[in-house]
Structures are given as C-alpha cells and as structure tokens.
Design brief:
The protein has about 675 residues and is of the alpha+beta class. Among the domains are: about 1-145 and about 545-565, no CATH class; about 245-530, no CATH class. It is about 35% helix and about 20% strand. It has 17 helices and 31 strands. Strands 5, 6, 7, 8, 14, 16, 22 and 23 form an 8-stranded antiparallel sheet that branches. The chain has a 4-stranded antiparallel sheet with strand order 1-2-26-3. A hairpin with a 5-residue loop joins strand 30 (about 650-660) and strand 31. Helix 1 runs parallel beside helix 13. The chain is elongated, with a radius of gyration of 43 Å. The N and C termini lie far apart (about 90 Å). The model is unreliable at about 285-290 and about 640-670 (pLDDT under 50). Keywords: Membrane, Transmembrane, Transmembrane helix.
Amino acid sequence: MSELELDTRFVKLGTWTNFDQGPIIGKTITANARTGTLIVALLAVLSTLGTAHLWNLVAFCIHQLRADGRLADALFLQQQALLRTLPPPSTLVADVFKLGWSWRNKTRRPIIRSIPLILLALIFAAATLAASIFSSLVVDSSNLAVLVNSPFCGRMTVLLPPAMHSITESYERQCYGNGSRPGTCNVLSRPRIPIAIQNASCPFNSTICAHAAVSLDSGLQNIRDLYGFNIPSDHSLQIRKKTTCAVLSTEGRTDISDAANTEVADSFVVSSGEYLALYYGSQVVDFESFTFNKTTPTFVNSLMKANVTRDFTFGSVVDFNTGTIPTAYSFQFDPIPELRNNHGDIVLIFVSSNSVLYEEQVNDPLFAADTFESPATSLLSTQVMRYGANDPTRPVGCLEQFQYCHRRTSREDFCTELGSRQDPKLVDTDFPDANNFQRAALRLLATIYQTSDISKASSRFMASAAINIQGVIDSLPNDQWIQELARWESLWWTGTQVSVRNYAVGDPSIPPSNTTLGSNPADDKELCRAYKTKKTSNVVNINVFGLALVITITLLITILDITILKFAIFLTRFRRALAPRVDRWIQDGIWQLQRRAYEARGHGEWINLQNEIPVTRDRRTLSDLARLDEVERKPEYERTFSAKVEAKRGVVAVRVVEGRRGEGMFDRNNVI
C-alpha cells in the first residue's frame, strides 16, 4: 500500500483550486509542514485577538441595554460598574457570582439576577472555543488532497497481471472491509467503486448459456470522483462499464485427448498425460498476421496436473472489437458464431476446480458439485462422503461494454451507446466536440482499458480461502460465482485507478523517449497536473477562504472595538448620538468613579465631568485613596460637615471641619 502514496518530491506546492469544493471555497495553498505550523500559530493569535475584542463589544452592548436610568439597587450598579471594566468572560463569571453571593439576604434575588450574565459569559466562552476549532480547520495536515507535479509525467509502464495483482489484492485486504481502514486507503480517489448487480438475459446466443446471466453495472462515474482529476465542470467526463456474464454450456464442446497429439501439446505446453480441451473459438497462432488454427482448442486443462492441485485455477482469452488493427493482448481468439456480439468485447474465463472436494453438495452454476468421490476416512476412523466438481473446467462468458459521456459548451452532454472499448487512435474522430483536456483523458483511459479485462483483475478466487489443508471445502453458497465476478469487477476498477496514478507520477527509470504521451504533449501534461491524490504527511493544505475570513473578521472586530470604545467615545457628536445611555457608560468608567471617590472626601476641584477622563482644575496633589480609608477607619478620627448658603453671587459654600478628636479642628472650604 505504501507504494501508492505520493512522494513528497512530486507534490505541487503553492496555490491551486480544489474544484470539488468550488472555485471560492476550494482555493488552497499547499505548503510544507513547517509553514503550516507557523500558520497555525498565527491563526491562534488572530482567533484570541478577535474574540477578545468581540467580547468588549458584547460587554458594551449589555451595559447599554441595561443603562435605562431608572432607580436601581447597589447590586445592579455594581454589575454595571463590572461590565464597564470589560473583564474577560471567565473573570465576569467569577465576579458576578461573588457579587450575587455577597448580596444574599440583603437585596432581592441576587443569585437569580446574576445568572443571565453568567450564562452569557459561558455561552461566549463556548463560542470562543468553537471559533478556535474553526480556525484550526483552516490548516489540514493529515489525509489531505494534493496535486501531482512530476517531471516524469507520462512515463508509464503497463502493469502486467502479476504486478497489478500484487497491488490491487493488497489494497483489497486493507481497504475493502467494513471496519476501520488505514489512511493509505484514501490514496485512491474512491476506495471501492459501487457495482449494481442484476439478473440479465444471455449476452450471447441463448443456446450457449447454461444458466441465467448476471450484469455488473458501474453506472456513469465522473472521472473527478473516480480517478481524482481536479477539473472544472466544463471538463466533465463520465465513464460507464457494464459487464454481463453467464456460465456457458459445455455440451459438445469438450474433448479429452492425450499429449501424444503434438500439435495441441506444443500449443498449450502439455507435457504428458491426458488433457481436457474446450472449443469456443480459434486461437491466434501468428500475432503478426493474426491467423488462426481452426483445429486447436480454445483452452486446455491438464488432467494429470488437476489431480494434484488442491485449489482453483483459471485461464482466459479475449476478443476486443477495437476497430483498428488489434494487439496481441486484445485479440487472442476468434469466437464461435454463438458467442459473437458486435456491441461489446468478449472475455472467456475457464475455471478449473481440479481436485477440490466439498463436504456438502454445491448448487452454484460455476462450482457445481454433486458427484460422489471415493469415501475419505476422518480422524474418528469413520468414512465421510465428499463431493467433487461436476465438470473439471467450466467456462464463463462475459460481454464487457463501455459508455463515454462528456460535457459540451452550451449544449447537452454527449454520450456514446454501450459498446466496445474506445480505440485511442480514434478519439479525435469519435469525439469532435470534446475539448483538449477531455480528449487527452479519453486517450489515456482508452489505452489503459485496452490492456486489462475482468479476468486480469485478480489471481485467485475468494472460494480458495475456504479450502483446508486436505483440499476440502465445507460448502459454497449458490451465488458464489456472482460474488467472485463482482469482486473481480471492483478490482478491475482499482487497477485502472492505479494505472492512472502511475501515468501522472511517471516512472523515473523509463527514458523520456518511451513516454506514453499522445500527439498533444501539452494537453497530456495538463492531464498529469490535474491529477489529485491523498497525502498523509509532510505537507499541509491551507484554505485560502478560511484564512482570509479569519483575518478579515479579526481586523474588522478589532478596528470596530478600538474605534468605538477607545476613540469615538471622546467625540461629542458620538456621545450626543447615543445619549443618555453612553453617558452612563462614561460615568461608570474607572476615572469617573475615582473622581467621585475623591469628591466624596472633599479632595480636588474637578472639571470635564461629562467626558471619559475628568481632570482637576488646578495642579493640586491628592492623597492616596487607600491612605484616606486607613485614616478614616481610626476611632479617634472625627469628621463633621456643616453647610451654609451664602447669598454672595449665588455660590453655595460647603464647610468641612476635620481633625483628631480632642485636638484643634481645621476648616477646608470647597466650592461646588
């Protein structure tokens, strides 16, 4: 599985658009892990800064809503003074609770009146946590989508079945289960392609099918989801594969011969003993001229080898109707008339049960076994009857059909009929309205599809896992053959996904002259650069929209908070517009409260009483409030107040007499 993960060297770094998320939300920056760490730290700072300034605005709004000017008790006024100090939510919760607790049994429902402010602070704290989580999602550091940027694009080796089986079957073991899957399972765009399984009519002449057929239909699959191409909607291309299979009749089409028949023995490498020959079409004997030997069988199975093989084996032949001169792979036999079908490609799979036995009868059409074999002796020395396969080898005939659809500008999508594989050389002719990218994708997929079929998807059967060391299976379900074909079909799709990935990444060991790029290298290079895969480590994705959103909101809230609460509050026009509530905000300020404390003790003559910051009229020095409180708490200290109204220029004079008890008193006059 690790061989499928993209090397960090071939990851495209920088800005790109993930079209799966849209042209706006999908704007992405792929960077190395170190850069991602710096961005995460920046987002944490911005998130903290933004929520702190937002809370200041929330506290201001709450204060203004409550500042209605009506008579209120001291608890309410203390809460207002607390809000005016703009404490953080955690501090507000603690201080509001302490206020409520201190006023218990002294005023009306102090605890209940404290609950709304506490709840509001807690809700904001939870919202702050949610905002932090959201900001962290801006940077994705695990199992992220990345674009491929490889200098070896197009240097692809067509994987032969053994190499392909090693990859696809390993992928199947780790990723096809219903349980948890490792992150590497997401390297391919879709871990498993859904296949619709339905009963179908015989895809060939009805006389050749021994049982009802079954169809395996993928439906139309967009290459964006199927292969991971990162393309806009106007580049859309859809692929559909429908495979219809049936177990074929062997009546009159088998023969048992001896290896002395040198012509057949040499053709199929049969060394000695008897062999079973099956006749469903002529084999190619000269791949240069594609001539056939009409007398040789389509497939043979050595009975001597079958008698010592305790597992299932199979072989296959294909006939692809590509429309041009076929390759040695795609045109291996000329089918008999009963098998010919011009609406698809023919694949014959010959399944041999060899010496596999069953504890119970099997009614599956392909693995049917109801023939008694020689009794076996169990561990308890009792004879056990076992069943052998009805036929040493049973053929399955499959008709593979493909459909291609592509998006057209200002017109409805173009779709072909279900038919044979597309010839790569005829893409430009068969799809005249396709754009350059769509044609490049069609050529690539057509090339890959020509090198594989359902029989090349796997090297084994699922039923093989049920064979014990003695070559015996308890039993098989009646639809085992359908399960086997469905698995092979899924693995075929996985194999094509691996091939597309190998094309985009390329093989450094292949010289540039052996590239599989088509006649338009620029379009094929674009195809490589559009390939998207998953990466589990070493790089990060930064969502541009999310990053811009966090920065914008943080700056907006910060500027709004500083403008309103720090500067606009100085402006007379602003105060007049929000009066009288904003006046109460000013009067609850720490400087106004300090001014009132000094005035209550008769210290200083203050001016600018309506502004946020009051000042004394002259440069008088003032005593520390804490010192004044300490002096006034002494029992021998005595302060008396006397006031008189003098009709001199309408001035009210207040006389303050203070001093130590038993000592001479001194006067201080303040003009109010």
